[in-house]
UniProtKB/TrEMBL annotation:
Belongs to the COG7 family. Its main location: Golgi. Keywords: Golgi apparatus, Membrane, Protein transport, Transport. It comes from Physcomitrium patens (Spreading-leaved earth moss). One of its GO terms (biological process) is shoot system morphogenesis. It is a peripheral membrane protein. PANTHER family: CONSERVED OLIGOMERIC GOLGI COMPLEX COMPONENT 7 (PTHR21443), CONSERVED OLIGOMERIC GOLGI COMPLEX SUBUNIT 7 (PTHR21443:SF0). This is Conserved oligomeric Golgi complex subunit 7.
Amino acid sequence: MMLDLASFGDDKFHAKSWVNAACKARHPDDSLDKYLGDLEIKLQLMAENIAASLEEQSAQALLRVPRASRDVFRVRDDALSLRSTVSAVLQKLQQAEGTSAESVAALARVDAVKQRMEAAHETLQDAAGLAKLSASVEDVFASGNLPQAAETLAQMRRCLAVVGEVPEFANVKRQLEGLEDRLEGMVQPRLADALTQRKVESTQGLRDILITIGRYKSLEQHYTRVRMRPLKRLWEEFEAVKVGIPLAKPAATDNSVGGDRRPATMPNSANGSTTSFAEWLPHYYDEVLLVLEQELKWCMVAFPEDYKLLVPRLLIETMGSIFASFVTRIDTFTTEATAASRALVGGGGATGEVNVRHSTLGLLIGLHNVAQAFSKNVLHLLFTIDVAELARVIEAIFQPFEGCKQRYGELERIQLSGEVSALDLRGAVSRGFGQRGVELSETVRRMEASIPEVIIALEAAVERCISFTGGVEAESLLLTLDEIVLQYLASLFDILKSLRSICGVDLLLDFMGSGDSSNLKKDGGLLEGAVKKEGTGTAFDVVPEEEEWTIVQGALQLLTVAEGLSSRSAVFEASLRATLSRLGTSLQPSRVLTSSTLSFPLITSEKEDLDDTFAGPMGLDISILRLFSTPEKAKRLSSLFEQQAKDPQFHALPHTSQRVAAFTDAVNDLVYEVLMSKVRAKLADMAREAVWNQQEEQNLFSLPNFSAYASEYITSIGEYLLTLPQQLLPLAGSGNPEGVEEGSDDAQYFATEWMFKVAEGATAAYTEQIRGIQALSERGAQQLSADIEYLCNVLNALSMSTPPVLHTFHVCVSTPRNKLFEVVEQDGIDNATFRLVCKMRQVKLESA
């Protein structure tokens, strides 16, 4: 039996548990007493072995203690000895350092003296050499060896730089500058001849001479002046083409450098017909691109180190030299083309199409697109050129259009104003009896049709702004759009004002205010057919009966105009905000403001597609370049885009939204007045009718002598109100709110809303007329009671409750005069109305 001593060393050792575990581990055939005895003996023997081993090891440890103590003392003595030795060494080093510092300082002074002596020696040599070169330079020039002369002058320049501002050599400096100018003058004609004839070796040699004497600018100027001549001749060819002089057609050439281009052909007809500037400009750009391609190939051989600066400089200087002429030709072309367009329109041309395609702004965008295509081809051709140089090239290409871009807001305003002014919003039907309803319907139809036309024109303006200015002139665009929409709304307001007279609303309101029937005779026969009816319920029929519903239907269609204008303007403004968000992402004016230098994507291969580079954020886009050159505009754009992004209440067209809401309110007012016109006409002089103060007639049979039926004026109003829902519901479904179908909940709500509004207005107008009755006899009270009861029944049929004031009038006039004081105790009686009725019926309030 093996014993595991590890369990005895465990902190959680328990004797009973260990014994029980040992008993369980015995073989079942072994006797328990014998097993426990053997286990006891083994434990005792093992304990004795452990005790003996411990005693032996303890004795050995006691023997090693003195020896370890002696070793510790010896190590301590060695450490003290080492410390004293190191201290002595440090003292010696400190003494040596002081002595060495003085020696090193003395050596440094000696070295400085040596260096100054050597510099003086070299300066003396250079001075002697400069004097020698100054004396022999004329011989070098006389030999005609220009490279040697350049090297001599360069050596003189180096020697003069070493000598410094020594008064004795001041004349040599002036001599050197004169000699350099002289050498440059000798190089110029040879360089011009070499550049003209494309002599590579001669050009390279003359270039080295100029570089040697530090006249690289002269090389750049001569190259630009010589190689610009064919490009300027191409520009001057337009004058010949414009007057119809046939020119030799150049051979077709494959000009597809970085992109597909058409063969360069002159756009001049065989019979010598004139060519416009817009037709000729693409040909000019093709020819310029061909020349640039040839120049790039030749310069890469002749000037392998300078072609990246020379070729862009050539195009920049060329565009600068023709800038004034380019601007003049643009102005002349746009002026002549717009004049021809106006003449064509006057001759019966297609007005809308001609105006859009041949307006000043449209023509400028066409020319700008041609220049943009040319700039993309230039980017493909010069893809290895430094990005900063490419940026200057792009700016030079678009510089002739800069003045027009700055006037974009004015140009856009002129175009949009012309398009809006050209809209024919008034009906063409002559005004007369029986034709006012037709005129109203035609005018409303034209107003409704003009809304999508205006929105399309505004959307086209947004596209023009992006196409022409890249969105940089977004501020001018918003101001222009807001102004044009206000102009359009002003015309709608004017028409709406004129429609009031067509509908007879203003004339009726004037009559209602004055009570003078002569007012009905205004406006040159507008009220032909108006009839004054005598008797109970006298009213002025302002609109002939046969035209009533025609005018009502036409007026209701105005709601379609207001709804369409409101919804379309809201959708357009939402799209305008989305456009501003996209422009903020693409232009990033805030990044332009924080960037000290241009940051463009690098172009690494000729096969790379440059479209993203041209139009991407911070790419070679003329719009980005314009923002870099005009930080104030970038700051304003950044503020605009930030406000649009952060302010949920931001309105791109702030005045438009207010005026559209005002127009909607004006339409609702007019429709309401039209729907109320029949009611107002029937109630025109109701309060002044004689029936209200008519006395009862005596008869033998005591029969009632008042009418048991409602008066004609109130029955006419009731029939009108009951007929109104049938007129409103089809109109609501046919076109008022867009997308509303007849019979839908929205259509039903529309009809119900306006029906309630008219019924409430009619009730209020009727109540006001009742208040105007001066005296009320018993017979008049009974008649008024019958009239009010009829109107209450109509309101109940329309699912409307009777207003408390009208209910009070009905109760008070239907109650006998001697029992009137009992009414005041009833519920729902308006006290002020009760007092008024008492006054009408000559009932003293004290008795009541």
